[in-house]
Amino acid sequence: MLAGKQSWIFDSKPVITATGTVGGPFEANGAIPEAFDLLHDDLWIGEDSYEKAQTVLIEGAVTETLKKASLKKEDVNFMLAGDLVNQLTPSSFAGRTIGIPYLGMFGACSTSMEGLAIGAMIMEANGARHIISVASSHNTATEKQFRYPTEYGSQKPPTAQWTATAAGACLLEKTGTGPVVTKATIGRIVDMGLSDPYDMGGAMAPAAADTIAAHFRDTNSKPDDYDLIVSGDLGQIGLPICRDLLKQQGYDLDHSKFQDCGLMLYKEDQPVMAGASGPGCSAVVTYGHLLKKMQKGELKRLLVVATGALLSPLSYQQKESIPCIAHAVSIEANGGMS
Amino acid sequence: MLAGKQSWIFDSKPVITATGTVGGPFEANGAIPEAFDLLHDDLWIGEDSYEKAQTVLIEGAVTETLKKASLKKEDVNFMLAGDLVNQLTPSSFAGRTIGIPYLGMFGACSTSMEGLAIGAMIMEANGARHIISVASSHNTATEKQFRYPTEYGSQKPPTAQWTATAAGACLLEKTGTGPVVTKATIGRIVDMGLSDPYDMGGAMAPAAADTIAAHFRDTNSKPDDYDLIVSGDLGQIGLPICRDLLKQQGYDLDHSKFQDCGLMLYKEDQPVMAGASGPGCSAVVTYGHLLKKMQKGELKRLLVVATGALLSPLSYQQKESIPCIAHAVSIEANGGMS
């Protein structure tokens, strides 16, 4: 089960039997609206705060997932959830409504794959019949907390990224129809001294490269074992840096092989600067877009490397650099589909 | 492995082969100074912020643990860590220094047992040779973030609790000498509508009762199967409420059977109001105090029910009530010791 230093090979191959994806207005106008089960045309979603709106996103993603699986909330053993808001209140408040026994995860934007990796691990140990893993973010809740309320209209440099308003959930079962989770690599925290919160992609690139190289080393695999490797949200700045770092280590990943969820979510003419970010970004692109490609037979072997910048506004004010992390999960079309 | 709805029985019985506990000045003058491997006489611990001081606490707890186990950092597969500070920066920064592949956990003060439960689950699936689980809190870092900087001298009601300045770590191995982790119950989020952040014990009591009852139900066990059941930080207000709620469900737990880590850490004459709190509280009381009792043969079967209040200053300002959770882990003296 443990492979090498920091990776897992799931012999039981837990199945992703259903997914649920919810987005906001910017995502509705983006490049992959068909990736979403539900799209809201307003950032408030009828709530009186952006944090409460984010809770609604999470509840929606979980409800959509359960609906497709014809399961009730009571059937699910555990819900693994996380987001970017202080003390993960959107996830906790959704956990309160949903009532499934709850495990809070935090890895910033890497939370999506942290939850999926731990969920698959619990399945591997026969620790659950059904697990929901959900990750989310909300653009204006995040802006308000990490930077400035958007109403201030403050400007940003082109290296900045646009936090997705999105929640993506998946249901794990021991058997069933759907893609299977085959491997995972848990990342180390890597900090190369970068401290610009308007260039998270650049800061996270070395962590992504570290985890990808560890994944190949630990699981004795190589780039050609995957049809596609996607990072979570390295964006236009971080992706080429990560590609360079991997090349130095002997892994030559070209554009068709190595892409970024943050560059798939929005259209080029949307004002998202260097691309999308947020735990919700990699969650919806993986669960809503890439797994649909897998269902259609366009993709068989996928490695999702969700990247996270573990800073806080306070750590930035205290002149700290940005510690970063990436967790990788390998998802493959199962026998019946391939 | 899965027992009932929300519990785990660990057939492999992962062993806690070493622990590390670090505290601050208030803990040094407390009721159980012998529970600590390392005590600092100053809250700043030579750093220029309380958050950085908390990072030093975590690094100390991990270093003490590894020293006792004669292991190097490189020998440990994963470090599971969490705290109360926004975006868990003290844990992330400690993870950066330590360099062990890292999984961030958030369950507020329940983080200590969330980490231990997930760590034991990873061991159960053969997902690691060595795992470190660490939880921490820092009194003044917490006050500053959740309430007011202590320098303001603001007053508090007697129902308020005192966040411990403490970090507690444990090392899990497949075999070895030490107490074993036998069961765990993952809690649901319970919110009875209480919204007073100066009475967390009262808010958390129903969540603790819910998890304890679920534990008995799921694992087909009863109070007499344990020598001692401890809640994490219900304090003087929450503990009797939880006792009453359990009595209504047919579980009569008297003082000798059901106690609270938050009432063990400090002396009665210390100005801690209703008792200690914080993820560091249940971590150091469990790893430093109760497991030492187990080593001496004074305790054989222990259930630690770490309790967490999942609020944020913002959710309070938005007039939300306090969602609460509790995770229970059963630790038993192993054959050789009992």
From TrEMBL, chains A, B:
What GO MF annotations does this protein's record show?
acyltransferase activity
Protein origin, superkingdom: Bacteria
Q: SUPFAM superfamilies given for it? A: Thiolase-like
InterPro entries hit by this protein: SpoVAD, SpoVAD_sf, Thiolase-like
Q: Which Pfam families match?
A: SpoVAD
Q: Which protein are we looking at?
A: Stage V sporulation protein AD
Give the species.
Answer: Shouchella clausii
